[in-house]
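Reopening this one. Same input as before:
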Amino acid sequence: MTYPRFFLWILVFTILSFSACIKTYNPIPKLATGGNGQFIASVNGNVYVFNTANISYANGRFSLEGMDSIPGQVQRIEIYFPAKTTGIYTLSSGTSNSGSVGVYMSAFSWKSVFSRYFTNRNNPGSITVTQLDTINKVISASFAFPATSNAILTSTPDIIQVSNGSFIHLTWQ
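Same output, byte for byte:
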């Protein structure tokens, strides 16, 4: 009679051991699980699913914008880069008309105060274009970049981290 109890205790111990495993939670949706037209990014660890995503493409150059707004605050990511094929593109410095740049902007409409952060040559980021169809006008990509403040409102620039960014099947006209 001691054998059945012994095996029962081993079974209970085994079940409890496997059920007590620590499960990790990743709040950032993976690129493959997002929906069409979805623009997602983490800014300093805060996850944003941008409710507006705009894109334009002219002369081999993309202009992407994701914006999330709640009463009193607007979060915005802009990415400008030239691309004609899939691949990895560096985001360092430039403007909306030249170069490749990542921009993060946070605005508090009730204060009329805004902060703008830009990629630069000393601290570049990247965008990985995984789908690019210029005939059907569709693009998918993931991106990450550090961005430095423009220091207009502060005496020293600070750096924010945009990470785990992705957009899936964004279309343009």
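So the earlier flakiness isn't reproducible anymore. For the record, The chain has a mean pLDDT of 77.
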